[in-house]
Specification:
- The complex is a heterotetramer, with 2 copies of chain A and 2 copies of chain B.
- In chain A, 70% of the residues lie in helices and 0% in strands.
- The longest helix of chain A is centred in the last third of the chain and has 30 residues.
- Chain A is flat, with a radius of gyration of 20 Å.
- By secondary structure, chain A is mainly α.
- Chain A contains 4 helices and no strands.
- Chain B is α/β, with parallel strands linked by helices.
- Chain B is built from 17 helices and 8 strands.
- In chain B, helix 14 links the parallel strand 4 and strand 5.
- Chain B is elongated.
- The termini of chain B are far apart.
- Classes of the chains: A mainly alpha, B alpha/beta.
- At the A-B interface, helix 1, helix 2, helix 3 and helix 4 of A face helix 1, helix 2, helix 3, helix 4 and helix 8 of B.
- Bound molecules: NADP nicotinamide-adenine-dinucleotide phosphate (2 copies).
- The site of one NADP nicotinamide-adenine-dinucleotide phosphate (NAP) has 33 residues of chain B, from helix 8, helix 12 and strand 7.
Chain lengths: 105, 460, 105, 460
């Protein structure tokens, strides 16, 4: 079974649907107390679009598309670093009780 | 090889979100996310066509420095603004990536300049459209949250009609663009979309911005999926779906917590009913007032206290003083717990982060379902800067705009203390009859100041 | 990006991992009371291997592989019908309280 | 088109399992599963190479008739056997599919006779191996569960060594097969694998069969994934992964419920310690005995009764009589609930199905975590045909083989009634000290008979 253009699309579709289902389960399993960090992480990972920006910024020379690509890289990097760091800050605040670890359920 | 590395990176992103199911595993999750991103970036750098390492490295450094600086300096109370601001950048980045693809389609293997594949053109322009809307919408949201722009919803006539017409115009432009591939039209789409972003968000009240930000977040996830389809890049598809699902679910949770329909949210134009329902005349009812000493006395003699923080606590930055108060009470042998409503504050999980910042152990911080049945057995509810989330009108008054919203049953505890500055209403603009109840004592003042005063009285 | 043999494998791998994650979430979300029907359903759907049997039984004529294919179809069908039907029987037994629907949590 | 239809079918299978998260949605889920299967079959029938509709139709009819007949006639108490029997067929079908692919590789586009792709050969032989093991293992499991073969574990010397050697032999045969593609070797693999399946399962006790069946189920799921890889068929990959995950998780739940490690299960050879720990001499201790009238009297005067059914109830088919008893008690205003231990009976969810069969509403049937804290507030625990799942040795006696297994705290209720035929131990072979407690009354007799007698006494 060779991968033709429509086949490629269906594969994308398969991955897409599976990822949506995973997204549904994973996000609902996030504890409400961590919904703010969740926003931080999704912000950071949505900047994976940097992959596209790097492709554009890749070729040598200095044409329009390369400049756009570089701007894209800068913007996405702000988000990546900012998003992960702010999430890190938030998460490192969440602490267990220090003494007398009474288990509450 | 590339595909495998991208797959690993996508799986790491999934585990990053999965880690957030518990505070314990969340730090590890964040690390997974970082590793995933590093793999994704380095894999892309290894592409044969990518040669200008210095420029890209410099760009990452510049962006990274700015991002790190902001992330490390920001106050936790300013989180909603921060998310909005970061968010506008994602939108803008998407626009630039689309533009770059348009000017150099070869680098993305989607055709040649002037003869780009139709599917890619459609995708590209939709990406641009969503990116631009996300950008301007988030900028406006940032302004409203930060207070730079008035948070008041700005309403004018034929608003929705105008938006609809602009939307049709954009569709028309996209069709035109796909046919003649003109740069002029491309940039026209960008500008008109930016305009639409502003117009869609402008009638929405400042406090509704988190829902808007979350919705835009979701949209941008789906846009990333779209780009993923064009590039046959599963990493983008999977990540986009995760982000899309996350934004959609968070918006759903928020709108459910506020008793708004999700349609209402998607259509925009909400947050305008700020003044309805507030008109009931309560000026002749009697309100029991108290001061910090009274509060200290009441709590000192209780067995159990539940603290209900809300938006006002965040505004006043009272979390540290509040925790200090809680610590003293705990030392006296009083059971102290915190009850968090799903939409307390101004973004999901906002209160949890603030309390965590103030070193409150997360076991003492409970969600609505976990603690709501404990109020009848509790002596004192200490409501600080919260209002709507305790309003029993949500259960009794069918005409109230918040009717049907789940609330924390503070009124079932033996006595209720309310810390706020005035008799003013909260975000929803609905009067809270609890203020007039016999077992309620109002403690007027700034939340932080009040906590500090109570701490003084308790220590005296 | 054309689909070469190794690309095809990675796509399979992608689908496989995503499906495993989904399996994890979906199965853990099954209520323990319905674990027996779960066994019934997985029994039935694992017979989707019938797809392979049909391919083998497809060609005209009567060679060895066709006979094997037909046997495969018979065996898988027993499972498919049996699995779904027995699950149906089990599930239709689970009933709510008929009168006075007291909601217990 | 084919790929899309297969995708839809895969998604429907996911929703079929998802539906099982609640009894309400489960029926719809089952329908999704059926539709998914219909789509999968018809899509495959539409392949150009598939021509012999009559033969295939006839085969489906024959198989379908047999399957339907069995599924409609089977007693619910015989479910474990049924699953094992069906299961052996899946294994056999896999072997036949692999054989067909070997004899006619062109139909599967994996090469030509005598020159099949190496990857496909490896996959094919592994599929055959797992399929054959599943087949013989399940047949033996069926025999042990049905009672056709003694459930006693059959242990002999060097058992594990022999199995390991046979396993190595199979690997060697597979390598040989991949090299020379000989039919003789193919069938040798089949036969040796069948032998190995028998040998692996034979030392395992009858009551452990459900774990074995579930493990084999899981393996066969992974095997389906493998076939999916060879055929580049995402439907098989996804379904295989679902089945694999389901089998693995169910085995995990069972072994956790029995306090066995999963390694212990994977390695096989367990269930042999049937008699350990049973040797404590209790013959001089006093046991309080009662009869049906005593039981009826005790329960009639209680406010609340929790019924704990176990394997013995299934054996005696006492569920209908039990429900009748419960109904009479409920009519007297007594609160009646059922407590189900995760491994009560002989397969996961077994008790739930039997009680459902007897028309017990599922709201009254509670899981261990849901009801365990209610025992101290309960007057009577009515334990019927259960033993191990109530044994407090699991909490107190570190040397006991069941130590660490979660148990139902029946001993915390005011009085405990035990319905069983003798003082014999249960599945684990461990003596139950609860029998000798002051607040315990033993009701010796067959579970069904006893319930009927109690019903008579109650009605009198
Ligand atoms: N969390 C989310 O995701 C989210 C998103 C969008 C909208 N919302 C909405 O936000 C609201 C949240 O409810 P809430 O109970 O937390 O807040 P609220 O109902 O808006 O009430 C906040 C109260 O805090 C008082 N306050 C303000 N500044 C203060 C200060 N410095 N010191 C002491 N008190 C102060 C205000 O009264 P005074 O002016 O008298 O001091 C006000 O009544 C809900 O209506 C929800 O629908 C939440
Ligand atoms: N559910 C699963 O998935 C699963 C899987 C594998 C193993 N297991 C194991 O199975 C056991 C289940 O525990 P359990 O408490 O349900 O069963 P159990 O501990 O095996 O005890 C069953 C009791 O029922 C009595 N009994 C048998 N036939 C009876 C009849 N006709 N009338 C009345 N009583 C009868 C027996 O005593 P008498 O002989 O004195 O009558 C026996 O003590 C656990 O040890 C578990 O580890 C469960």
């Amino acid at each position: 079974m060779e991968a033709h253009s429509s086949e490629v699309f269906v594969i994308g579709l398969t991955v897409f649907f599976l990822a949506c289902i995973i997204g549904y389960y994973v996000v609902w399993s996030v504890t409400p107390a961590l919904h703010s960090p969740l926003m931080g992480v999704t912000n950071a990972i949505s900047s994976v679009i940097i992959v596209g920006a790097i492709l554009a910024a890749g070729p040598q020379g200095f044409d329009t598309s390369k400049i756009f690509g570089l701007i894209g890289v800068v913007l996405a990097s702000v988000n990546i670093f900012g998003g992960f760091l702010v999430t890190y800050r938030m998460l490192s605040m969440f602490k267990k009780k220090t003494k007398k670890t009474k288990e509450k359920k | 090889m590339v595909a495998i590395l991208y797959l690993i990176s996508a799986l790491l992103f999934i585990f990053a979100l999965r880690g957030l199911s518990h505070p314990e595993s969340s730090r590890m999750g964040n690390i997974f996310g970082v590793i995933g991103m590093i793999i994704a970036v380095f894999t892309t750098l290894m592409f044969k066509s990518v040669l200008s390492y210095y420029e890209i490295g410099a760009a990452i450094l510049v962006g990274g420095a700015i991002g790190s600086f902001i992330a490390l300096r920001i106050e936790m109370t300013a989180l909603p603004q921060l998310v909005a601001a970061f968010h506008s950048l994602v939108g803008l980045a998407a626009v630039f990536v689309a533009a770059a693809a348009f000017y150099d389609p070869v680098a993305f293997s989607i055709g040649k300049v002037g003869s780009i594949k139709t599917a890619s053109l459609v995708e590209m322009s939709i990406g641009t459209f969503i990116g631009a809307i996300t950008f301007s919408g988030s900028v406006l949201a940032f302004g409203k949250l930060q207070g730079t722009i008035s948070g008041k919803p700005i309403v004018f006539k034929f608003q929705h009609l105008i938006n609809a017409l602009i939307f049709l115009l954009i569709i028309f432009l996209i069709v035109l663009f796909v046919i003649n591939q003109s740069p002029t039209i491309f940039w026209t789409i960008v500008i008109v979309s930016i305009l639409l972003g502003f117009l869609v968000v402008i009638p929405i009240g400042g406090a509704d911005m988190p829902v808007v930000v979350s919705m835009l977040n979701s949209y941008s996830g789906w846009a990333a999926c779209g780009i993923g389809f064009t590039l046959s890049n599963n990493l983008l598809i999977i990540t986009g779906a995760l982000v899309g699902a996350s934004g959609a679910i968070l918006s759903y949770i928020m709108s459910k917590g506020m008793n708004r329909s999700i349609i209402n949210v998607v259509l925009g134009g909400f947050g305008g009913e700020q003044d309805t329902g507030a008109s009931k005349d309560n000026s002749d009812k009697i309100v029991k007032q108290g001061n910090a000493e009274d509060a200290a006395y009441i709590m000192k003699n209780a067995d159990s206290v539940i603290i209900v923080p809300g938006y006002g606590m965040a505004v006043a930055q009272a979390q540290h003083a509040l925790r200090e108060m809680g610590d003293i009470l705990k030392k006296e042998g009083i059971e102290v717990r915190y009850a968090i409503h799903p939409v307390a504050g101004r973004m999901p999980g906002h209160m949890n982060v603030l309390l965590a910042e103030a070193n409150v152990p997360y076991e003492e911080v409970l969600e609505l379902d976990e603690i709501n049945h404990d109020f009848p057995m509790t002596e004192v509810s200490f409501v600080i800067g919260a209002n709507d989330v305790t309003n029993p009108a949500a259960k009794t008054d069918e005409s109230s705009p918040i009717f049907g919203m789940p609330i924390l049953d503070v009124e079932k505890s033996q006595s209720v203390l309310f810390v706020k500055r005035s008799m003013a209403t909260g975000y929803s603009g609905v009067d809270n009859e609890l203020f007039y109840r016999d077992n309620t004592t109002m403690l007027f003042g700034d939340a932080k100041k009040m906590c500090e005063d109570i701490v003084k009285s308790l220590s005296a």
